[in-house]
């Protein structure tokens, strides 16, 4: 038989190496190409949403910049003409969305005020919103601290999570005084 | 660059650049009007008086952006995301100025001025990048250059009547730039480079929107740049993490091309495989698996598939690489042609190995490019020769010819390494149903059945099997050839020792056989 | 073993590996337009 890497013995060496250290023979054994984040069964072309050679998934519609005729870009001219919002009508979810996406804007404060009205409190150090669990009374008070189970809003996973807290109530934000900011919003 | 700047020129540039950045960010709605005012100010400052001041302006303005980038990125207190946003706000504005100048320079019908300007700017950025890489070495930061190139390309690819007229020239200018900045020249820029040449807008333009596929050959050149850069690092059995990452990115790009532009991979497969190391089996398979979208492949596992009844096998595939020109030196080509014509002198055969061997260094004894070109050239000549006798290539018509003399001589005369490369060159032609696939499939099977030593049969099996055991995809021609080899009793495949040389090998054959039979 | 030239290229590639471009760097910046910019408390999200 051929006694070097160019015969069956050479291939056998690869196969055995693959069993002990797959990293060793990635080139010869290859990898599962369907696991590279591309939808290879797609009827449509892939390149219009290709996220790039180092992205693990295709670009989402919101990642892609489409050429829009400049006359479509009207947000500058209409922002004073938008209708007023009545935040009371909206659920917590939307209020959190407005709080986290309108940074540096009056809308952020307005959402915070409405959340405050609904018994959410913003912890100035932890930088999270927490609230007591409805119906639960076993909160231990001790001076300015309070211990018990609260909901906090997990912005990364975008949901409420139950958690044991020991809260220093002096660190809880006051309700923003919207009037003091004098903008007439709600 | 060694001509001194006129006094105050750098300050003027900086002033103008800052002025433009402010305009860009505050007067976005009627930017065009502001632009024309700004141009008159540039003129006032003498920037537009001629090529030399303009080039000087661009060089200093670009350098300013790059310095800003290094300052921001190297600021330990700065939040990286905010730093990048600030850099981009600056660079994007500068790029918009370049794009507007390109678009509005010269008479609207004359593209030469526009392209001149574009090439000058690209040339300046290239020059600064290469200089920067030299100066900073491993501390080189690619961010500013990446941003300038991609944003300039996006600006010049926006739907616009003037730009549409020169879109082929624009893409050519960028291809030329990326070719100059290819990873082997600018390794510090290699990841950005791959990101740029595989950006969806760039691929869309060069492979889909440019009519008559005029962008394809340029794009193939860029891929060859990439493969050549990767090759020395892919020869190692163990890939370092940076190499693995670039390789994986390359696979992603090839998958997009395989899915969206299979014809492109088909047409340029020879040039690609010619620069991919033989041990990169999956990546090479990926390219060889491409087949034209309008073609329906018969299931290679169909019992009693009559390959020679398929009418696709009479059609030669397009090959856009001039492989015949790769057969050097010229007198060797001349001798080859005369041997193919006259089947003499016999000494040509005995000298063949000498023409192919370039050293005695194991692993790099042979001129792989010459081997690949020779095999494909001889094969295509063989097909023509058989056709000239109003015959079709098959197991009987391919024998007893000068062409098969050459193949048999290579199979017998080369050492294991040479034979492995020779058989790889043949296996690289086992693709989708076409006349090359059919001829080379017959040829390799004929070499197997006529082999006068088991080593030849073993290596044929090795070359085919290693291409089959790798993860998918697998080329159609490879499958049908291997199935024929193990099913047709004429080859007595299962009688050979190397089939049973180890339990793992035996198991492999059984699993492949099971899936085939 | 790698030739000298390739060793240098590898060092540069390796250094570049730590400044990997991210897909967002190849996309236009999204200009975030305030409706009514006001100073908000520093402990609010700023980004």
From TrEMBL, chain A:
<comment type="similarity">
    <text>Belongs to the CNOT2/3/5 family.</text>
</comment>
<protein>
    <recommendedName>
        <fullName>NOT2/NOT3/NOT5 C-terminal domain-containing protein</fullName>
    </recommendedName>
</protein>
<feature type="domain" description="NOT2/NOT3/NOT5 C-terminal">
    <location>
        <begin position="48"/>
        <end position="172"/>
    </location>
</feature>
